[in-house]
Amino acid sequence: MLSIGDVAQRFGLATHVLRHWESVGLLSPARAQGSRRRYGRDDLYRVAVILRAKEAGFGLDDIRDMITTQDPATRRNILVRHRAELARRIGEAQVSLDLIDCAVHCEHEDITACPAFRATLAERLWIDAQPYAQE
């Protein structure tokens, strides 16, 4: 069993974060003498799940609902919704990474005039899909 300070240090968190997570129903550590929180192995896994879910973009309410529900369909619905959002964000990040990769390899003096760089932006600007006004 670990103290709140031990758990906070292990995960690089402030102790108030763990207390907040407890207050919103994400954690429920055992209590020892003097109402001191004591965290076991299951609590450590739960903290790891919370951190990973936050990294994936889940809010605390959805994390709580996901890890406390007894209904697999409810959990699945939460996960499917967030999976779609994460896939969208990954797609956007991949487009940004492609743009950076193109810029890294560009030899043009003015990167905005580079045909390869412009090609990576064409979809964003809809130049190929819609006519644009010329000045």
Explain what you see:
The chain is mostly helical. The chain has helices at 4-11, 15-23, 41-55, 60-68, 72-105, 115-125, and strands spanning 30-31, 37-38. The longest helix is centred in the middle third of the chain and has 34 residues, at 72-105. The protein is elongated. Pfam families: MerR_1.
Write a brief caption for the model:
The chain is mostly helical and 135 residues long. The protein has a domain at 1-50: Multidrug-efflux Transporter Regulator, Chain: A, Domain 2 (Orthogonal Bundle).
Write the layout of secondary structure elements.
Layout: H1 4-11, H2 15-23, E1 30-31, E2 37-38, H3 41-55, H4 60-68, H5 72-105, H6 115-125
Antiparallel strand pairs: 1-2
Helix pairs in contact: 4-5, 5-6
GO molecular function, one term: DNA-binding transcription factor activity
Organism: Lentzea albidocapillata subsp. violacea
Domain HTH merR-type: 1-69
